[in-house]
């Protein structure tokens, strides 16, 4: 019996070897030795004040524009609670982050997907959705999108902001991958283009690790205050101990070095994945991101992701469902490939196994 270790090509998580244990341990020790009661006490629902101040300075905003949460996703939930009314339309890209769709549906909201191209959402469809649906908000991931690996062009960003102005739509810019750019030049954030109508969410999950659950939103102070009210009524305050450790780590200047280490670790993995796709699956269309965690592949006609997933398991590769990322159907041939948590060798072997599964699924279908 030959034991083949399954390659997990389905999980969009950071690489465990990216975790800066000794730095975090030092920050934890320093934070606790300072005996600041705020670390172990209840506190304001806006979150641990020194970290809010640090983030405000880092992003060039006022402190009352920053709220911390246990991960950024929880703040999105608070936003949907504060702003959403059952039956409301909310615009997303199609595909989009599947957990966001779950949250929206849990609140009775109606996600309306706008097709996403490699340079951002289809603007004619976006305008049509704004005009027809009068959405409460539009949730977009402009940088290194999860799941597609698309990045919105600066021209499209400006036009999205203009449309949001015209139709009075709140923009929710989810930006956890924004600083993980391995090449090319940074595009302006939606928040920088329209600070009065954008909430930008981000977190330390992809930088330090998701375990401490340190996420945040920046936006108009009035909206931030509304989120703080929901937060207070939900959990009193976020996890101050973890947030205090994150602050100690940030203020001792650790963030820039960590970002550089992540880029050095992940850039070769992106390249390995693009190389392997060109070699083993040249007939499939793959996005070519310049950063982030994800490449996506649209399989050639005649084979579905569902079939490839099933066959893939027999060949030792685990893949995510494609359709779950599509709010209103589609995605039958969509494959998300998170490349960061695999080594270049695992990526090459994983893509090779996927290609074997694609051929097998295609010939099984042809034989029917
Ligand atoms: C687009 C996007 N938003 C939010 C999250 C979750 O972030 P957090 O850990 O800050 O809740 C993820 C995690 O994969 C993500 O890809």
What share of residues is helical? 40-55%
pLDDT < 50 runs, ≥5 residues: none
Quaternary structure of the protein:
single chain
> What's the main sheet like?
8 strands, mixed
User: Could you tell me the number of beta strands?
Assistant: 13
State the helix count. 12
Silhouette: globular
C-alpha termini separation: 31 Å
Order of helices and strands: EHHEHEHEEHEHEHEEHHHEEHEEH
Strand fraction = 15-25%
- Tell me the radius of gyration: 21 Å
Helix-strand category: alpha/beta
Please state how the strands of the largest beta sheet are arranged side by side.
Answer: 2-9-8-7-6-3-4-5
**What would the average pLDDT be, to the nearest integer?**
97
Small-molecule binders: pyridoxal-5'-phosphate
What does this structure look like?
The protein is of the alpha/beta class. The chain contains 12 helices and 13 strands. It has helices spanning 21-33, 49-59, 72-83, 98-106, 123-133, 154-167, 190-193, 221-235, 240-251, 255-280, 305-314, 344-367, and strands at 7-8, 66-70, 89-94, 110-117, 120-121, 137-140, 170-174, 198-203, 214-218, 285-286, 294-298, 317-318, 334-338. The strands form 3 sheets. It has an 8-stranded mixed β-sheet, sandwiched between helices. Strand 4 (110-117) and strand 5 form a beta hairpin. Helix 1 (21-33) packs across helix 9, helix 3 (72-83) crosses helix 8 (221-235) and helix 11 crosses helix 12. The protein is globular. The two termini are 31 Å apart. The model has no long low-confidence stretch (mean pLDDT 97). Bound molecules: pyridoxal-5'-phosphate. Residues 12, 71-73, 97, 141, 146, 174, 176, 203, 205, 210, 215 line the site of pyridoxal-5'-phosphate.
């Amino acid at each position: 019996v030959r034991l083949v270790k399954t390659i997990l090509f389905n999980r969009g998580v950071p690489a465990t070897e990216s975790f800066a244990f000794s730095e975090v341990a030092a920050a934890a020790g320093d934070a606790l030795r300072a005996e600041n009661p705020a670390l172990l006490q209840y506190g304001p629902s806006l979150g641990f004040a020194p970290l809010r101040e640090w983030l405000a300075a880092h992003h060039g905003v006022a402190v009352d524009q920053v709220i911390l949460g246990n991960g950024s996703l929880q703040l999105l939930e608070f936003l949907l609670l504060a702003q959403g009314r059952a039956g409301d339309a909310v615009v997303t890209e199609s595909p989009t982050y599947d957990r966001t769709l779950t949250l929206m549906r849990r609140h009775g909201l109606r996600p309306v997907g706008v097709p996403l191209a490699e340079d951002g959402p289809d603007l004619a469809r976006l305008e049509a959705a704004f005009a027809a649906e009068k959405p409460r908000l539009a949730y977009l991931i402009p940088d290194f999108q999860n799941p597609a690996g698309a990045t919105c062009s600066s021209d499209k960003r400006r036009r999205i902001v203009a449309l949001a102005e015209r139709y009075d739509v709140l923009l929710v810019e989810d930006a956890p991958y924004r600083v993980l750019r391995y090449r090319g030049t940074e595009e302006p954030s939606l928040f920088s283009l329209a600070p009065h109508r954008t909430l930008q969410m981000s977190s330390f999950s992809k930088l330090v690790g998701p375990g401490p659950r340190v996420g945040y939103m920046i936006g108009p102070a009035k909206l931030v205050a509304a989120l703080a009210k929901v937060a207070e009524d939900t959990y009193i305050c976020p996890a101050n101990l973890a947030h205090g450790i994150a602050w100690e780590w940030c203020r001792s200047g650790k963030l820039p070095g960590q970002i550089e280490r992540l880029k050095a670790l992940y850039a070769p993995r992106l390249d390995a994945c693009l190389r392997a796709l060109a070699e083993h699956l040249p007939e499939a269309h793959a996005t070519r991101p310049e950063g982030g965690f994800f490449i996506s592949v649209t399989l050639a006609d005649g084979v579905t992701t569902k079939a490839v997933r099933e066959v893939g398991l027999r060949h030792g590769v685990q893949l995510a469902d494609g359709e779950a990322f599509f709010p209103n159907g589609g995605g039958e041939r969509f494959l998300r490939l998170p490349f960061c948590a695999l080594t270049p060798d695992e990526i090459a072997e994983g893509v090779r196994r996927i290609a074997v599964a694609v051929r097998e699924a295609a010939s099984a279908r042809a034989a029917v």
